[in-house]
Specification:
Length: 277
């Protein structure tokens, strides 16, 4: 388990599962030029999970993983090589990772969801049963209609999101900067989705930015041609990515992208060279 600190806050990376993405999910990615991102099965492996922020009397879970499920490859895509072929996505480890960190679901006071894609809401309410019954669920208001409203009513992620909303525990936020706790601010970072937010943690002269899906692969640190197929507005997503990477480098902040290998905490050097902290 990866861990870092920012002042009095302790931040843990909690793994939930893995998604195997065919290369067409990354428009602009040249596999010959960036062979290092490919697994031997021919896909790009990205972890799914969450980050746990504790301190100042608060226990905040950032994102809720893929959830206890599997999903297959979309029709027309090349699946990962293997016999039998593995699923495209699988999760289910988040609650165990939380327990390893010494936290039970009832200890979590806030679940901050960077955006409402299915691989970030999986543990909110599996099968419609809220997993963090005592927590408020915070998300960007601009995400609901374009992301959740278009889903069928029997979609598992919509069922979960509507369950926590019906329980009265959802807080939909607006604005560029929304304080969540002392030194912790949700900052609007649209492009991947309209209501995407990052979480900015500052204390005692230190800073950590939990980037969510502002960036999906280390290749994007230095190759602006590489996009992601699920970006709502690719041009805005690229501007947002450059903005936050420039901000992290300029302020010497630690960054934590959700889907980077190992869910490591990183610091950017000259030329956006990333090193683990």
């Amino acid at each position: 388990m990866q861990r870092t600190t920012v002042g009095d806050y302790t931040i843990d990376a909690l793994a939930d599962g893995l998604i195997r993405l065919p290369t067409p999910f990354f428009p602009g990615l040249d596999p010959a030029e960036h062979a290092e991102v490919l697994d031997p099965d021919g896909t790009v492996h990205v972890p799914t999970g969450a980050f746990l922020v504790r301190g100042q009397g608060r226990t905040i879970l950032v994102d809720a993983g893929f959830g206890p499920r599997e999903t297959g490859f979309p029709a027309g895509t090349t699946p990962a090589a293997g016999d039998p072929a593995p699923p495209m996505g699988e999760g289910g480890d988040l609650l165990a990772a939380l327990a390893t960190a010494g936290v039970q679901p009832e200890d979590v006071d806030t679940v901050f969801v960077t955006h409402l894609h299915s691989d970030h809401v999986g543990w909110l309410a599996p099968q419609g049963d809220p997993a963090f019954a005592g927590a408020r669920i915070v998300h960007g208001a601009a995400d609901w209609q374009p992301l959740v409203g278009r889903l069928s009513h029997d979609d598992w992620s919509r069922i979960g999101l509507e369950a926590v909303r019906a329980a009265g525990s959802v807080e939909a936020i607006h604005g560029d900067a929304v304080p969540l706790a002392p030194g912790i601010t949700a900052r609007h970072a649209p492009g991947h989705t309209p209501g995407h937010y990052v979480l900015d943690v500052e204390a005692d002269g230190e800073r950590l930015i939990l980037l969510g899906d502002v960036i999906h692969t280390p290749v994007q640190l230095r190759d602006d041609r590489v996009r992601f197929i699920a970006d709502h507005d690719p041009e805005e997503a690229a501007r947002t990515r450059r903005r936050w990477l420039d901000e992290a480098e300029r302020s010497d902040a630690v960054i934590a992208p959700t889907h980077f290998p190992g869910m490591e905490f990183l610091r950017l050097g000259p030329g956006r060279e990333a090193r683990a902290v």
